[in-house]
Amino acid sequence: MKCVNCDLVSGLEPVVIENKLEGDELQTDLSAIEKCIAQLGAENVVCVMTTTNCFTPRVPDRSV
Fold first, then answer.
1. How many CB atoms lie within 10 A of CB 45?
2. How far apart are CA 53 and CA 2, in angstroms?
């Protein structure tokens, strides 16, 4: 995962938020992302990046 390697080389610290299982699909856990941003402070977040490294049933990320 080159995107994570770039973060590490830049001195950034990735925060991993697990996907949630809805029925038989993995979905981005938007409420967990929002909670994490609130805890860290929005001014301390450079970006939000979604990715998966498995081939399970997925739906498109609802990031908006």
1. 13
2. 12
In terms of pTM, does the model score above 0.85? no
Tokens read off for 22: 């809805």
Three-state DSSP class for 5? helix
- Which range of residues forms the domain containing residue 57? 1-64
pLDDT in tens, 53-63: 655 555 666 66
Can you tell me the distance from the alpha carbon of 8 to that of 12, in angstroms, rounded to the nearest whole number? 5
Q: Positive or negative, the Cα torsion across 18, 46, 62, 5?
A: negative
At position 57, the amino acid (one-letter code) is P
Annotate 35-52 with DSSP letters as a single string: HHHHHH-GGG--------
Domain count, the chain: 1
